Protein: Adenosylmethionine-8-amino-7-oxononanoate aminotransferase
Amino acid sequence: MPEPLTTGELLALDRQHVWHPYGPMPGRQEPLVVESASGVRLRLADPAEGHRELVDGMSSWWSAVHGYNHPVLNEAAHEQLGRMSHVMFGGLTHEPAVRLAARLVEITPEPLRHVFLADSGSVSVEVAVKMCLQYWRSAGRPAKHRLLTWRGGYHGDTWQPMSVCDPDGGMHHLWSGVLPRQVFADAPPAGFDTEPDESYARHLRALVARHADELAAVVVEPVVQGAGGMRFHSPGYLRVLREACDEHDVLLVFDEIATGFGRTGELFAASHAGVSPDVMCLGKALTGGYLTLAATLCTARVADGISSGEVPVLAHGPTFMGNPLAAAVANASLELLLSQDWQGEVRRIETGLRQGLAETAGLPGVRDVRVLGAVGVVQLDHEADMAAASRAAFREGVWLRPFRDLVYTMPPYITQDDDLARICAAVTAAAREG
Ligand code: PMP
Structure:
C-alpha cells in the first residue's frame, strides 16, 4: 500500500491535475477532502469552520438515500465482489442484472417492460432519445427526429441530453447553435399544489400539434425540474402531455433520474399524475448512491417498433453495461427501500423541512421557500455568494452546495430529526449570508 497523502499533498495534486464537476482548470476551487462517510455524515480530513464531520444535506446529488457505509449495501457489494465485479454484457448475462431489470419493470408504471442498463444518467437519456428516434425511423418516419421539452430543465451533460437542457442561461448555453435544435415550451407555471393553468396547457398542446410531424418525443422531468432551477409544477401538466402525445403520435419520455425512488413522496413522480410514459430514465438513487448505474425502460410498443425496423437492433452497448457489482447493490438498495416504510420517512422529512424552513421565507433577500417530499428549496432574489453560503452551512456542521439563486437540500431518507433541524438551520444561515 502506498503511504497516505497528507491533506496538503492531496490538494496540491488535485489542483494540478483534477477536473471537478463544472470546475475550472487549473484548480481555482478548493474542495474539502473527505476521508470517509458513514450514515448521514461526511468525515473531513481537516475541520471546516471547526467541524470535522458534516451532516450531508445533499445525498451526494439525490443518490445516497440510505446514507453512507450501509451494512446491507456493503454486504451486497462484498458478496458480489467474491463472484465477479464485471463481465461484458454482450452475449453474456447474469443474475444481478436480470433480477434488477425484472424488479424495475415490476415497480415502475405499466406498461414499461424492457430495460436497458446504462452506466450513468446522461447515457440513459441518450439511450432514451436513441430509442425514440429509432422507433420512428423503423416506422418509416425518419423526419420525426426532434424533441420537445420545457425550458428550465436539466437532463445531463452528454450531447442529446444537453440539447434538451435549459437553452437560456442554463448550464449548456455555450453550445447553443451547435447542439441539435429542439423545440422548447415555456417552463411550467410554478407550484406543485396547483391546478393546471389552462392557457399554459393550451401552449403545450399547440406546440405538440404544430411540430408533430418532426417530433420523435417529448422529454421532461416530471413534477420537479432539478438542476435547471429546483422548480416544482402541477402533475396535471404530465396528463396534458400524455394526451397531446397520444393524439399527435409523439412518444413521451420521463426523466426520473432525480425524482425516482421516492424523493417526491411517490416512488416515481409520474405517479403523482397517474400517467405512464413510453420511456423512463432512472439513475442516481438506483444503487443507493453506491455505484454508477442507470436504466432506460421502454414499453413493448417501442421495443417492438425498433426490432421490426430495417436495422432491428438498438445500437448501443457500453462496456460497463449491466455491471454486476452495481446491479447487485441496486437490488439490495431497492429491497432495503421497499421493505421499510420509505413513504413514512419521506413524509417525516417533508414535515421537518416545512417546519424548519417556515421562518426562512420571511428573511430579507428570500424570494420563495418550497418543499416537496424530501426536497427543500430556498430561492433568493439574487445570485448566492457560494463561498459565503457554504461557510455559513459549515458553521452549522452541514454540507450544502448552493448554486445560482438557490440554497437547497435533499437529505438521505435516514436523516433523523435532530440532524434535519441542523440542515434547516444551515439552509437558513446560508440563505441569510449567501
Ligand atoms: N437527468 C436529471 C434529471 C438529472 O438530475 C441528472 C443529474 N443531475 C441527469 C439527468 C444526468 O445524470 P448523470 O449525472 O448521472 O449523468
The mean pLDDT is 96. The longest strand covers residues 41-48.
